[in-house]
Design goal:
Blueprint: H1 12-42, H2 46-49, H3 51-70, H4 76-95, H5 100-127, H6 134-163, H7 165-186, H8 202-207, H9 209-229, H10 232-240, H11 244-269, H12 273-294, H13 298-314, H14 316-330, H15 335-363, H16 369-395
Length: 396
């Protein structure tokens, strides 16, 4: 199949990419629920298995951009298929693992291929539609990740706890192979990048002030989100007073908000992503500050967690679209690397948020996490305003 011109309709290939990204998202998020099961089976402390989450995030943050740069001259359909095969290989290592060390290696491989696949999938999806649908196309690809938090991770956790954690990785392998077959048939062949960057050209992305502003906004926004979200279960249990069952329901509601925010964010960002970003950051910070005052009210917390999920992930399409467009404007051929680096920025925010949140809890208390997170999102808001002022003329 050859390349298709940009369309105002959503082509089947984008849905196939979403299907594959769901598998990546499930692999990333399911490990959190399986940590006790894996720890018991391998006879290691839970703190050791926690490295499985960290290793996957590091694989995305470091390996994603490096692999994207190294493979920049390869035709993108062939590249995505290769990435899926590597992802299957990494999960096969996990399936046959009998110790924590090989499991950690598998997480590094799968995390890196996640970053590689997502970076190019986003660029390809935006190229398949007209200009006023690009953010929507990006949001659809990312919706695979969002739906994975609501459906894939809980289903994988259930499967792993009832049939053994190896069964979860086998299910991910089967899902990925199905997505691979789908991509072979529906994904159009893409032309090789006209000016593909090399490994040594990665600094070009960071030297672009416009892209750097977006990357920093991404880091600060998700640092603020995960200062609270990393420890939301103990917050809900010890401060709000929710039972374990209600906590699971609240987390499900958060996931619903995440999915809705991603879809809505894509629609809102189609025409004026910079302006949309400012409003999303503003309301995101406001909700975090409000939460810090109402943690004792179950009805308000229940409602605000839904809104928080919506706002926290509604900015994903705008951030990704701006990173790619602003980078391509400055240096043609750099969109893939910019996309990968922006995904890395998200994961850097996740890591920093969890570390800062832990430090705050140790030094102060759980109820300080919402407003501290709000402060970080306010910094993201200032960066969003700066980006808007630099780009509002072109977006009008």
């Amino acid at each position: 199949m050859t390349e298709q011109p940009a369309s105002n309709r959503i082509p089947p290939a984008i849905w196939a990419l979403t299907f594959c990204v769901f598998g990546f998202g499930t692999a990333e998020f399911v490990s959190v629920g399986l940590l006790p099961t894996i720890a018991a089976d391998l006879s290691v402390p839970v703190s050791y298995t926690g490295l499985l989450v960290t290793m996957y995030a590091l694989g995305i943050a470091v390996g994603g951009p490096l692999l994207t740069a190294i493979t920049g001259s390869i035709e993108r359909k062939k590249l995505l298929i290769t990435a899926l095969l590597l992802f299957v290989f990494g999960n096969l290592i996990a399936y046959f693992s009998s110790n924590i060390y090989t499991l950690l290696i598998s997480r590094a491989i799968t995390g890196a291929t996640n970053g590689l696949f997502l970076a190019h999938a986003v660029v390809m999806a935006s190229n398949m539609v007209e200009g006023n649908k690009k953010a929507t196309a990006i949001s659809l690809v990312f919706s695979g990740l969002m739906i994975a938090t609501v459906v894939g991770a809980p289903a994988g956790t259930y499967l792993g706890t009832h049939f053994g954690w190896h069964a979860t990785f086998l299910a991910i392998i089967i899902w990925t192979l199905a997505g691979l077959i789908g991509l072979i048939f529906v994904l159009p062949t893409q032309p090789k990048p006209v000016a593909a960057l090399r490994l040594g050209d990665i600094p070009v992305v960071f030297k672009n002030t416009s892209v750097l502003i977006i990357l920093l906004a991404n880091i600060f926004a998700y640092t603020g989100t995960f200062v609270l979200f990393t420890y939301i279960s103990p917050v809900l249990k010890n401060i709000t007073g929710f039972s374990e069952n209600l906590i699971n329901l609240v987390l499900l509601i958060f996931g619903v908000g995440v999915a809705l925010g991603n879809f809505a964010g894509g629609r809102l960002s189609d025409r004026k992503p910079s302006k949309t970003l400012v409003y999303l950051f503003l309301f995101h910070a406001i909700v975090l500050f409000i939460l810090s005052f109402v943690l004792g009210s179950k009805p308000l917390v229940f409602a605000l967690v839904l809104i928080l999920g919506f706002l926290a992930y509604g900015n994903v399409p705008a951030l990704q679209l701006l990173a790619v467009q602003l980078s391509e404007k400055h240096k043609p051929g750099s969109g893939g690397i910019a996309s990968a680096v922006n995904v890395s920025a998200f994961n850097v925010g996740v890591i920093l948020g969890s570390l800062i949140g832990g430090a705050i809890i140790n030094s102060y208390s759980l109820n300080t996490t919402p407003w501290v997170g709000g402060v970080f999102v306010l910094i993201a808001l200032l960066l969003g305003i700066l980006n808007y002022r630099r780009n509002k003329t072109s977006e009008q």
